[in-house]
Write a structure and sequence with these properties.
This protein is an all-alpha fold. The chain contains four helices and no strands. The structure holds zinc ion (ZN).
Length: 86
């Protein structure tokens, strides 16, 4: 076990968040990329995680809608709702 640069699936899992966030140093990033390209299992894990993160980012951008904008939106929706009732 003298191969320090021998990336295993375990290493991929441990560094997955940093890898996705682009927080790894270039050498490790390149090694993980190489492993993912040769390992279908890790490729599936990475792709799944990337999709999940994209969904989270979308949800996050909705949540970070300025409060004022949200109030206006809700006010407008409420008014339209009352209009329909009357
Ligand atoms: Zn793997």
């Amino acid at each position: 076990m003298t191969h320090e640069h021998d990336i295993t699936c375990q290493n991929i899992i441990e560094n997955l968040n940093a890898y996705i966030d682009g927080e790894l140093d270039k050498a490790l990033y390149a090694e993980i990329e190489a492993h993912i390209q040769s390992c279908p299992d890790c490729r599936i894990v990475v792709n799944t995680l990337k999709k999940t993160i994209e969904l989270c980012k979308n949800a996050d951008s909705e949540a970070s809608l300025p409060v004022e904008t949200r109030h206006r939106l809700f006010a407008k929706l409420n008014l339209e709702d009352y209009d329909k009732k009357d």
